[in-house]
Structure formats: C-alpha cells, structure tokens
Amino acid sequence: MKVVLVVISYFVWILPAIFVFSVLYNYxxxxxxxxxxxxxxxxxxxxxxxVTFKQMLVNYFxxxxxxxxxIGNTALLAFYAVVLAxxxxxxxxxxxxxxxxxxxxxxxxxxxxxAILKKEFYVSADILIYLLLVxxxxxxxxxxxxxxxxxxxxxxxxxxxxxxILLFADFTLKSIGEIWQFPNLxxxxxxxxxxxxxxxxxxxxxxxxxxxxxxxxxxxxxxxxEIASAVxxxxxxxxxxxxxxxIAFSMFTFASMYIFRFTLRADLRDYTQKISLDASxxxxxxxxxxxxxxxxxxxxxxxxxxxxxxxxxxxxLKNYYLANxxxxxxxSRMDKxxxxxxxxxxxxxxxxxxxxxxxxxxxxxxxxxxxxDPVMAVQGFPAIILHVPVFxxxxxxxxxxxxxxxxxxxxxxxxxxxLEKNEKILVADANGTIICAPDNSMLFKNISTxxxxxxxxxxxxxRFGYGLLVEKKFNLIPIKTFTAYAFAPKRxxxxxxxxxxxxxxxxxVILIVLFVYAIKSLYDAYEEESERxxxxxxxxSKESKTLSQKLQTLVSLFATIDTGKTLEETSRQLLDSALKxxxxxx
Length: 586
Hints:
Helix 1 (about 1-30) packs antiparallel against helix 3 and helix 5 runs parallel beside helix 7 (about 155-180). The protein has helices at about 1-30, 35-45, 45-60, 65-90, 100-115, 120-145, 155-180, 185-215, 225-300, 305, 310-325, 360-365, 405-415, 490-495, 495-560, 565-585; strands spanning about 330-335, 340-345, 370, 375, 380-390, 395-405, 425-430, 435, 460, 465-475, 480-490. Helices cover about 65% and strands about 10% of the residues. The protein contains 16 helices and 11 strands.
C-alpha cells in the first residue's frame, strides 16, 4: 500500500508541472523567446527530485513526521515558485486571480490561525507551507491555461476548476487531520490524492487533443521556418535532458537510499541477533550454575550424614565448597529454627540466627527451595543465597544453602560469552536490582539508573551512551524471574558504515555525472542551434548584399540614361548595360 501511495504522490505533484511545461513549450515554440523557458524548466526539472526528497524524509528517515512534511513541502514549494515566476515572465503580465482562489486562500489562512490558537506551532507552519504549495500549483496550472488560444476548451476549463478544488480539499483534510488528530481522514485523503492523479492525467490528455485540434496559441510573431525548426530542435533536446535528469535523480536517490536502508537493517538484524545470543548465553550460564547447585543441595538433603550433620557430613559439605569455590562464597547448614549450625569457610558465623531474613521466613513457611533477593550477606558482601529444605523422616529439619558472591557472579556467567569490544551485559531481578554487571559499583543499584529507557530491540540513551539494547528474561526457580540486558554502542552496531558511505559517494558521483551530461546536452544543443542560425543568418546576409548590389547597379543604370535620345537608342543602351551586369555576376 505504501508503494502505491508513493507512486501516486509522484504523479500528483509531477503531472501539473508537466502540464505547465507542455503549454509553455508550445507557446515558446511559436514565439521563439526561450529566455524565461530555461528558467522555468529548471523549476520543472527539480520537481521530481523534490518529490523524491520528500518521500525519503517521510518514509525512510526517523525524524518527526511533521518536520519531514515541512522540509519536503518547502522543497516542492521552492521549485513550484520558480515555475510560477517563469510563467509570469513568459506571459508578460500579472495573472488575473479568480474570486474562488481568494476564497480558498482565506479558507486556508483560517486553519493556520486555528492551529496557532491551539498552540500547535509546528502544525501551523506545516499547514501554511502546504497552503502556499497548493496555491502555487493551482496558479501555475491556471496561468498555463490562460496562455492557450482564446477559444477556450470547456472540458479542460472544467478539469482545471475540479483540479484546483481537489487541491484545496486535500489541504482541508490534511489540516483537519493534523489539528484535531483524526486518523480516519487518512483513507479519505488517500482517495483525494487518487482523484487528483486522475484529473491531472485527464488534463494532460485534454491538452494534447486541444493542441492537435487548435494550432493557434497566443504568439507575438510568426517565425520563419528555419528559425522555428531550430527552436523546436533545441526544445526537444531540452525536454530530453529534463526527463533524463529527473528520472535518473529519482532512481539513483531511491536506489542509494534502498541500499543504505537495506544494509542498515542487515547490520541491525545481525548485531541484534549477536547480542541477543550473548544475553541468552549469559542467562543459560547462570541457570546452569544455579540448577546444578540446586541438584547438588537436593542430593545432600537426603544424605543422612548431612541431615544429622555429623563430622562426615561436615567434611562432605566442606569438600563440596572446595570443589566449587570458584562459584560459591560459602556452604551452610541451617536448623529448623533459622540458626546457622555449620558454615564453611566463614565458621565464625556459626550460631547466628537468620530467621528474620525474608527468604528464610518464606522457606520456614513453605518448606520449599527459595532464592533470596540480592542481600548484604552476614559475611559482609553482596550476595544471593539458595536454600534447599532438609527433611528427617518427613519432618522439616532446616536447610542447606550456598551463597553466591555477586562480585564474582559475572566471572563465571560471562565465561562462555565472547563479548564485542564495547558490549555490556547486566543481569537484574524482577525488582530491577542489578546482580551482575561489568563494574561492581553497579551492583545493588536499580537497572533504571543504567537504562532509564528500557525497550527490547531498540536504541536507547543510557549510562554507556546511545546504543542498541536487547533483553532476555529467564527463571532460576519458578517464582524468580531475572532479565539479562545486552547493550552495544550504535557506532559498533553500524560498523560497516564506511562501506555504505563509499557506496553513497559512488552513487553521488554517478548522479553528478548525469547532471553534468544533462547540462552539457543543453549547452551542445544551444551551440549547435546557434551555429545553424548563424549560418542561416550569413546566407541571408549574403543574399541581401547581392540584392542590394543589384539594386544599386540598376539605379546607376537608370541614372546614366539620356532621356533626350530616341527610343531605339535608349533600348540599345539598356541592353548593353544589362549584358555588363550579367558579365559581372551582379
């Protein structure tokens, strides 16, 4: 649907310019005065690039839509203003302004004032520029029609009136939609655009038929065939250059933007997948460690030596810690009252009552495995603790716990992950408390202090700068949800930008070459036709000199005739003089 609207938008703005140029082309072909046609044609030539520029802003750039419309419509207005100014110069008079156009203008100013009163200043600027644009288009088409033969075509006149009405109807729908935010008007506005396209196409067809049937266009002089032919050849080459440049500019601009957008999206997709995989690997590593710890503690919970905590049981717990000290800060055994009856290596904490801790209260109530929130451990460092209940013949007998030092959590959770140079991985619990970070000073802080704006798969401004953020949620135990955040700076995401810039430069060079070709084509056409006209002028000059010499000879001849001689003598004298003129080639 978007592609269809882009195509329709092209025709909606370009067809009126083609209509105006067609009229001016035929008018100048009759008058031979191409001075202001060249100026006007430059405006027509750049209408297509202006439409391309507008469509790029609206559809390809991530700027505010109102800003895109303001910039794009301003570009269109500038070139239509050039067309309008050239038309007035060619017509050599200020055009008559119909009363309906005055009413349309007042109607449009009303919407601008309403937007200002509602303090929608951006919207008012957009509406004002669009009002000037549709007015310029309407006046251009109207002036072109005035340059046609006095024998007006009623069908074409009706089409122009309808076209102008549709221009301001489109303006009205745009104004209402932007001021009062009526999204349902979008469909109606699209329909209005489509009808404008049809009317503009009918205008061109009517003009073609009119010019075939009515050869007369207001002309100041009737040119000699040779001069008219030279003017015609020049204008045809000018039109070819105009068409080539407009099409080439639009095609290469859209091609370059497509390539640019395609590679940007490819880079974004690939990098999103990469850091998303890094976040998943980090989550999997943490899950694996906690899952293995839970399995091991569950096995100890059924070991009689650990249940009764005899010396053999203590040795088993100690050896378990020594084998996994790169993962755990300590291993402990708590009784049914919440008192630590064994811990290693922090043996001084034996005998401490920890029953007031929230996760211990939950376990003493549910008799099920629990994972604490990030806490400051009694050992004096930030930690997260996993407790698995112990039962003696079905009776709750306390728990076995391992304590994870959050300062070391990152070392083993990020071990299987190969991070990019500036990539950052953080992990936070459901409350946003950070449990894993590249800098230990971030532990225990809320994730919102690092990422004020959190949105998965989007670019955000954060403590690390501006870049891409990806989130991966995971569970350690059923009711404990955590999120792994992977961040990469924008400059790293789009690291292939140099290639794209070089490609854009190449396309720009091609575009400049085409533009130079168009200008050279016009210059060559001008030089060629100038030479032809110069040769034609020299031939005519020689012919006029020859004729002048003949006339002078005849004048001299008659001046030497003696009126007193007889008729026979006078005839013989004239014959002798004529023979002398023939001998001299005069």
